[in-house]
Amino acid sequence: MTSQNEKQSADGKAAGAAALLNNAYKAGMGAARTMHQTAIDIPLNILAQLGLEEDKVSALRAKSQELIGELYTAIDSVASKSGLVGEAKDTGPKAEKKQSNPTRADSGTRK
């Protein structure tokens, strides 16, 4: 009976450690994503102050946020498929669109 209890205890500790690492990964990735978005905003804000039209600055900002979102979605996908961490849910601006409009990669078909 003791051996079974020890195994259950070890399994519980391993699951707890895995959850802790998964949460740390997600928090770290969120912080890195925020840092990258903020870093890209700096030159865009300067361009706006120098007189670049607001619609152009907005378009550049939207494109940069889209690119960053896709980058971090790809990183999360690789990490979850490799088994290093649990699947991280994308919370970026395109997350809702991706969920309602699956891509070829999401549908499981390849050419």
Structure, briefly:
The protein is mostly helical and 111 residues long. It contains 4 helices and no strands.
Structural notes for this entry:
With 111 residues, the protein is mainly α. The chain has a domain at 12-88. Helix content is 77%, strand content 0%. It has four helices and no strands. It has helices at 2-49, 54-81, 95-100, 104-107. It starts with a helix and ends with a helix.
Short key terms for the protein model shown above:
single chain; 111 residues; mainly alpha; 4 helices; 77% helix
Assembly of the depicted chains? single chain
> How much is the average pLDDT?
79
Summed up, the helix count is 4
Order of helices and strands: HHHH
Task: Assign the structural class, choosing from mainly alpha, mainly beta, alpha/beta, alpha+beta, or little secondary structure.
Answer: mainly alpha
How would a textbook summarize the main sheet?
Answer: none
Shape type: rod-shaped
Rg from alpha-carbon coordinates: 20 Å
Report the β-strand fraction as a percent range.
under 5%
* Uncertain segments: 98-111
Please report the total strand number as a whole number.
Answer: 0
Percent of residues in helices = over 70%
**How far apart, in Å, are the first and last alpha carbons?**
53 Å
Furnish the topology, listing elements before pairings.
Layout: H1 2-49, H2 54-81, H3 95-100, H4 104-107
Helix pairs in contact: 1-2
